[in-house]
Amino acid sequence: MKKTFDDIALLIPAYNEAKYIEKVIYDAFLYDLDLIIVDDGSTDKTVDIIKGIKPRDDTKLHLIEHTVNKGKGIALKTGFEYAKNNGYTKVITLDADGQHKMSEIKAFLKEYEEKKPSIIVGSRFGDTRDMPFVRKVTNIFTSWMISKIAGKRIEDVQSGFRFIDLKVLETVKLETSNFDTEPELLLKASWEGYKITNVPITTIYHEDFVSHVNPFIDTIKFFKLVFRGLALKRRYLNRSHTTG
Known about the structure:
Radius of gyration: 18 Å
CATH superfamily: Spore Coat Polysaccharide Biosynthesis Protein SpsA, Chain A
Order of helices and strands: EHEHEHEHEHEHEH
Shape: globular
Oligomer: single chain
CATH class: Alpha Beta
Strand content: 15-25%
CATH topology: Spore Coat Polysaccharide Biosynthesis Protein SpsA, Chain A
Number of helices: 7
């Protein structure tokens, strides 16, 4: 696999994930892909655990540290920039909390080989039996609304499991810094005409998983995301008309 995909790195933003990060990393090593981990100012043992892991002989592990927590969006942008500056042309992003099956990385690689999309989004909606009800409802509505704004069907806009060709970031400039960076990337890539596809993924909910979804706060976040998407589209269209 390494000879074929040596320009692809796994990009993992992490914040206080000491409980799961070691298993996530060792599972990732099975795919012979280099790892870029951006620790976003963790205050637990996350960084110590990462530094104590010896990568396999044919795999590199790059750790970038934020001294303070800056938000997932900033962590992703730090990772994108590091990847571009170190010879990688594509990344597969995934979360550090162990809720993604590493074995499904092969689905992204297969999708890329067969269809050559610029972005592949892992969709959790093939089987939502274990997904907390409020999270499922808000994710479905968010994805539906963002797809409408994007003008392209995106099944799971808040999924952190994605394949991204870094060429996209040559024309897509990211302005946000937190959870809204992932939908922003999809919106702007859609408007720029990049090919986006979806692949089904499994989301793992651990036995000790506790949902932190608050119906009131989550609803507010949903509407903020929709309004921000509409505002981004207006600005994008205005710039297109101005430069066209």
